[in-house]
Amino acid sequence: MTTRELLFLGLLRHQKMHGYQLNEFIQQDLAVCTDIKKPTAYYLLNKMEARGWITQSSEQIGNRPLRRVYQITPTGEIAFQSMLRESMQEYTPTYFEDDIPLAFLDELTTDEASTYLETRKEQLLSELEIMQNTPVHPGTVQWMLEHRLRHLQAEAAWLDEVLSRLTLMEEE
Amino acid sequence: MTTRELLFLGLLRHQKMHGYQLNEFIQQDLAVCTDIKKPTAYYLLNKMEARGWITQSSEQIGNRPLRRVYQITPTGEIAFQSMLRESMQEYTPTYFEDDIPLAFLDELTTDEASTYLETRKEQLLSELEIMQNTPVHPGTVQWMLEHRLRHLQAEAAWLDEVLSRLTLMEEE
DNA sequence: AGAAAAATAGTCAATCCTGACTATTCCGGA
DNA sequence: TCCGGAATAGTCAGGATTGACTATTTTTCT
Predict the structure, then answer these.
(1) CA(A111)–C1'(D16) in Å?
(2) Are the beta carbons of A25 and A7 closer than 8 angstroms?
(3) Which of A2, A14, A21, A53 could form a disulfide with A76 if both were Cys (CB 3.0 to 4.6 A apart)?
(4) Does domain B2-89 correspond to CATH entry 3.40.50.1110?
(5) What is the pLDDT of residues A144-166, one digit of tens each?
(6) Residue A165 and residue A163: Cα distance in Å, rounded?
(7) What's the CA gap between A111 and B33, in Å, rounded?
(8) Do A100 and B139 touch (CB under 8 A)?
(9) A62 touches strand D (CB under 7 A)
(10) Distance of alpha carbon B17 from its chain centroid, rounded?
(11) Residues A67, A58: contact at Cβ < 8 Å?
(12) R_g over Cα of chain A
């Protein structure tokens, strides 16, 4: 996923940041679109430094432990520009992990299957509700929210279809 | 992704298969829902053998190279049953990699952005067309196709929305 | 003041995944 | 019958990812 690197570069363009700050921001403000774990973040930052896209420097505030501050380089800026343009044009098909169990739906009675899929649907609907009650976000993040919303609605409609066909089979 | 293991178990329940056969089937018939690379397949099969879920035996047909035939064990069957039920109830939220570049849409002129997103849309639409012309598949795979179809339609609608708002901004 | 909880700032070992590679065999056409 | 390409059957080294862990400092509450 090159887009993860794009993300770090994009964030560092506005201001130099330290690791904790980057991780916080990603977990808090970008939870809609990605979930980069802390060790992954450091791994990627190190890789990007090795490549010359960013630099690290040490900083100490008061008695807090030393921390590394990351800063984008001109090379990094060039990389950002080109990756941004490339990835903006791309459509990458997504696989849905939860599709796989459906391949074996026959192994369950329609009754049992319905019960499980209802549980699944409840989780989906509660996700959907959270989304619908999320206040409007600033800037372009709003577009991701709407993306997610549409996606969840499509999921719900599809699950309903599956469930209603299962019910039909049950009645036969 | 535990569902990958579920998939292998589910396939081996019907008949013992060798590695090549498993890989072929996944690439040809299950391309809608997953893309497991060959080395990953062997890796997972070995892991599952170590765990006692499947057994390997060697087989030779004519002069062809020796090959390993995988077969599910009773322990594997139990694992399959429990994983199937668990995963059937689960809804796992999906992240869309292509959302990330949108966070930096401001960095481009609306004109440039539109051009790129139009390219993206074309790719999406050609995917959609392929889906719509795919003949009805047998069994439960059909449900995955419909899932994908709905998802692609939602994507297209969302992209249209983004594009039309961009155009509005351009006119101001 | 003292203790528990939260915030800060990472690291490490292990797991997962895949591009690139190796080899052999079969098959159709010149 | 000889050659090239497709099919067969995997392996290996290396990159990506993360759960669990370590340590210190600040804050809060009593």
Answers:
(1) 41
(2) no
(3) A53
(4) no
(5) 999 999 999 999 999 999 999 99
(6) 5
(7) 24
(8) no
(9) yes
(10) 21
(11) yes
(12) 22
Q: What pLDDT digit, counting tens, does each position of B19-36 carry?
A: 999 999 999 999 999 999
CB contact under 8 A, B120 and A158: no
What are the boundaries of each domain within chain A? 2-88, 97-171
Tell me which residue has tokens 């179809």: B149
B42 touches strand D (CB under 7 A): yes
Cβ–Cβ gap A119/B89 under 8 Å:
yes
**Interface check B171 vs A, CB under 8 A:** no
Whether the Cβ atoms of residue B106 and residue A139 lie closer than 8 Å to each other: yes
Q: What's the token pair of residue B16?
A: 């013992």
The CATH class given to the A2-88 domain equals mainly alpha
> Looking at this protein, which amino acid is placed at residue A152?
L
**B156 shares contact with chain A (CB less than 8 Å):** no
DSSP B89-113: H-------GGGGGGGGGGGS-HHHH
In sequence order, what E strands does chain A have?
Answer: 17-18, 54-59, 67-72
Tell me how far apart the alpha carbons of residues B88 and B67 are, in angstroms, rounded to a whole number.
33
Do A147 and B158 count as a contact with CB atoms less than 8 A apart? yes
From the CA of B167, how many Å to the nearest CA of chain A?
15
pLDDT in tens, B106-150: 999 999 999 999 999 999 999 999 999 988 888 889 999 999 999
